[in-house]
Amino acid sequence: MAFEGLSEKLQNVFAGLKGKGSLTEADIDTAMREVKLALLEADVNFKVVKEFVASVKEKAMGAEVMSSLTPSQQVIKIVNSELTELMGGVNSKLTYSPSGFTVLMMVGLQGTGKTTTSGKLAAWLKQNGKKPMLCACDIYRPAAIDQLEVVGQSVNTPVFTMRDCKDPVKIAKAARKEAEIKGYDVLIVDTAGRLQIDEELMDELADIKKEIKPHEILLVVDALTGQDAVNAAVGFNEKLGIDGIIMTKMDGDSRGGAALSAKKVTGKPVKFIGMGEKMDALEPFHPERMASRILGMGDILSLIETAEAAYDEEQAKKLEKKLKKNQFTLEDFLEQMGQIKKMGGLGKLMGMMPGMGNAGIKDEDIEKGEKEFRQMEAIICSMTKEERNDPKILNASRRKRIAAGSGQPVSKINNLVKRYEEARKMMKQFSKPGAKLPRMFRGM
Ligand code: GDP
C-alpha cells in the first residue's frame, strides 16, 4: 500500500515526542532530522524535502501553545497541514466544459497505464452521471486499439476507432464530431505513448491538442517509477502543457515519493490515483485525506464515501427496521458481508480506519481477517434458512452437520454463534425508542 514506510516512520517520530511536556528546539531538530530521512527514503524530491522540513520547523517553533493540544499533537497538526499543502491542498476536480461537451486528452509514456486509466475514467464518469465515449488515437500499435476496445467493452462505453487511418489528428477530430452528434458529453482521447519523451511524440500531441482543443490534458504517470514520473511530468508540462496528473499503480508503490513531489515540482495537481488493475480502481485524489492516512489519523471521509457508494437505500431501511426490533439474523449478517465485499473487502476498509492506517495494519492481519471472513461465510452458507433466522435452534447435532458442510471445526461454529449473540446484545441499544443509527452504520 502507498506510503507504508513513510507512514510508519513518521508515526515513530511522533511517538518519540509523546509525553513531553514541552518541546525544546533540540527536540524539534531531532524530530525534523528523522522526518527528513523518512521523506528521502520515500523517494521524495530532495529540494521538496528541504523546504518541507524548514517550513514545519519554523511553524513548530513559532506555534502558539494551545492548551487543547499536547506539544507532539501540535507537531502532528503542523506536519498534517504541510503534507496536505504539499500534495496540492484541496481536491482538484476535473473541469467540465460549460457547453456540456467536454474533451479529455490522455497523454503519457508507454506502460504507465494510459489505456487502462482511460477505461477507468470512463467508468468513473459514468458513475458520476456522465455519458462518455472513448477514442483510440494510437496508430502505431494495433494492439493498443484492441486493448482500448476490450477496456471499453468492460465498462460499457463505446470506443471510436479508424483502423485504416494513419493520422491521429484526423481520428481525434472525427471522434469529436461523432461524440457530439451522438449526444455523448465527455470524449476521452487515448493517445500514443513512447518509451521516452521525444520531439515526434510531442509534435503529434501538440497537433491533436490544437485540433480538438481539449478541456483538460491529463498526464498519466506510473508511481512505481518514483522521481522519473515527476521528471516526465515536468517534461510533458513544459512541452505540451498539462492540466492534471493521474498517478497509477499507487497500490504497488510503498514509498509514495512521486505523489508527494509532483504538485510542488510541476505546479500541476494530481487529480486521480490508480489503485489496482480493475476498472473500479480509480479514486479522486484528496490531499487532506491522504495526509491524514499517512499520519495514521484514518481516512473517515473516504470510508464514508465508499460506504455510501455501496449504500442501498432499500436494503438499509430494511436492516434498520430489523436492528430496531432486534431481529437481526445470521441471514442479514451474510447480506452485510456481501456489502463489505462490494466496498472492496476488509483490507480496503481497514486501511481507512483511524488507528489502523497503513502503519498500524499489516498485510498478514488483512489476510487473516479476510480468511476468517470467508470461513464465516462458508459456515453461514452451510446453515438452513431456518437456522440462519433463528440460531437458537442450533443444537449439537446441527452444529456438527454445519461443521462438516463448511469444512470448519465445531469450535468455529460455536465462536460464530457467540459473536453473533454479542453483536445482537450490542445492537439492542439501538432498539430503544428514539435511538438513531449513524447514517454510515445504517449502510453497513
Ligand atoms: P499504457 O501503455 O500506458 O496504455 O499502459 P496500460 O494501460 O497498457 O497499462 C500497463 C499495465 O499497467 C497493465 O498491465 C495495467 O493493468 C497496469 N496498471 C494500470 N494501472 C494500474 C494501477 O493503478 N495499479 C496496478 N497495479 N496496475 C495498473
Automatic annotation (TrEMBL):
Gene3D superfamilies per record: P-loop containing nucleotide triphosphate hydrolases (3.40.50.300), Signal recognition particle SRP54, nucleotide-binding domain (1.20.120.140), Signal recognition particle, SRP54 subunit, M-domain (1.10.260.30)
Catalysed reactions listed for this entry: GTP + H2O = GDP + phosphate + H(+)
InterPro entries per the UniProt record, alphabetical: AAA+_ATPase (IPR003593), P-loop_NTPase (IPR027417), Signal_recog_part_SRP54_M_sf (IPR036891), Signal_recog_particl_SRP54_hlx (IPR013822), Signal_recog_particle_SRP54_M (IPR004125), SRP (IPR004780), SRP54 (IPR022941), SRP54_GTPase_dom (IPR000897)
Binding site for GTP: 108-115, 190-194, 248-251
Segments forming domain SRP54-type proteins GTP-binding: 269-282
Subcellular location, record wording: Cytoplasm
Cited PROSITE patterns: SRP54
Domain of life, source organism: Bacteria
EC number of this enzyme: 3.6.5.4
Keywords: Coiled coil, Cytoplasm, GTP-binding, Hydrolase, Nucleotide-binding, Ribonucleoprotein, RNA-binding, Signal recognition particle
Main location: cytoplasm
Family of the protein in this entry: Belongs to the GTP-binding SRP family. SRP54 subfamily.
Biological role stated in the UniProt entry: Involved in targeting and insertion of nascent membrane proteins into the cytoplasmic membrane. Binds to the hydrophobic signal sequence of the ribosome-nascent chain (RNC) as it emerges from the ribosomes. The SRP-RNC complex is then targeted to the cytoplasmic membrane where it interacts with the SRP receptor FtsY.
Domain notes: Composed of three domains: the N-terminal N domain, which is responsible for interactions with the ribosome, the central G domain, which binds GTP, and the C-terminal M domain, which binds the RNA and the signal sequence of the RNC.
Protein name: Signal recognition particle protein
The organism of origin for this protein: Gallibacter intestinalis
Encoding gene per record: ffh
